[in-house]
């Protein structure tokens, strides 16, 4: 049986290659939960934003991100597609986008499976699949969940709502039965907290960062570790947090210099 494993990043790819699990790989390297998204011209929009925001060369972006993503157009050559993702908002938004692509060309004979842990036995501070060893990865493979057509349709609806970005419509959507995608509900609840509070014009992430900075924290490393411990649901990298900090500085909402 010919299998494609869609991995949520290079950290997972590293341990996956060590595990000798059979099958081809597609490494997902985008962060669709951060920045603009659209139904049309998505890759052009993302390429420009990533370049302007994080200084990524657009040629490198095409090679590392778009070339890999184009493998999604070849799914019908596989008997099985296994998606390896995590519980956080970043992973969940990437996941629903990919599932919406699969749903558009869904064939009943294709087996679509999901591996998406939010905890690992013996790892109280589990952060991601890239932390696991080969034995743990193989165990997860044996616990994969087969997705149904209804799951793909739910993901497609969720992606459409994420693009639309209407608070009330997303909030109402949370009453839906999330089937085999229960962690998506938690992630979307976290996403709603990214809408600015009308009273302060700060969203939850910004408020948490400001509160942490106003405590005894004196370095960015300390800040990022504290944020992750409190808000791992967002799956933000240091690079993304640094971008948010710069925006807060531009708005003159923080003045403290961190080491």
Write structural notes for this entry.
The chain starts with a strand and ends in a 9-residue tail after the last helix. The chain is globular. 50% of the residues lie in helices and 8% in strands. The protein has 259 residues and is α/β, with parallel strands linked by helices. The protein has a five-stranded mixed β-sheet. The protein has helices spanning 10-19, 42-54, 58-69, 89-104, 134-142, 149-164, 167-173, 182-192, 204-213, 220-231, 238-250; strands at 3-7, 24-27, 80-84, 111-115, 145-146. The chain folds into two domains: 3-191, Dna Topoisomerase Vi A Subunit, Chain: A, domain 2 (3-Layer(aba) Sandwich); 204-250.
> How would you classify the helix and strand content by structural class?
alpha/beta
Uncertain residue segments: none
- Principal-axis shape equals globular
CATH architecture of the largest domain: 3-Layer(aba) Sandwich
Overall pLDDT level: 95
Distance between the termini: 53 Å
Q: Describe the sheet with the most strands.
A: 5 strands, mixed
Total number of distinct structural domains: 2
The CATH class of the largest domain turns out to be: Alpha Beta
Strand order of the largest sheet: 2-1-3-4-5
In percent terms, what proportion of residues is strand? 5-15%
Q: How many runs of DSSP E, i.e. beta strands?
A: 5
Protein name: DUF1835 domain-containing protein
Pfam family, one: DUF1835
């Amino acid at each position: 049986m010919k299998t494609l494993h869609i991995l949520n990043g290079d950290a997972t790819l590293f341990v996956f290659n060590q595990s000798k699990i059979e099958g081809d790989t597609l490494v997902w390297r985008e962060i669709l939960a951060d920045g603009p998204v659209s139904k049309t011209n998505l890759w052009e929009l993302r390429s420009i934003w990533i370049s302007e925001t994080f200084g990524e060369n657009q040629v490198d972006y095409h090679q590392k991100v778009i070339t890999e993503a184009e493998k999604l157009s070849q799914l019908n050559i596989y008997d099985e597609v296994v998606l390896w993702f995590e519980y956080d908002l970043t992973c969940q938004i990437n996941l629903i986008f990919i599932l919406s692509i699969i749903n558009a060309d869904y064939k009943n004979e294709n087996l679509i499976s999901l591996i998406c842990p939010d905890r690992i036995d013996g790892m109280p501070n589990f952060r991601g699949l890239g932390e696991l060893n080969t034995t743990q990865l193989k165990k997860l493979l044996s616990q994969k969940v087969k997705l149904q057509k209804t799951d793909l349709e739910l993901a497609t609806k969720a992606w459409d709502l994420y693009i639309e970005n209407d608070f009330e419509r997303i909030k109402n959507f949370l009453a839906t039965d999330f089937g085999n995608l229960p962690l998506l509900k938690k992630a979307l609840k976290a996403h709603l907290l990214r809408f600015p509070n009308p009273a302060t014009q700060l969203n939850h992430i910004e408020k948490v960062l400001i509160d942490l900075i106003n405590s005894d924290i004196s370095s960015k490393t300390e800040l990022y570790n504290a944020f992750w411990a409190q808000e791992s649901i967002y799956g933000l990298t240091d690079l993304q947090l640094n971008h948010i900090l710069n925006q807060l500085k531009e708005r003159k909402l923080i003045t403290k210099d961190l080491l």
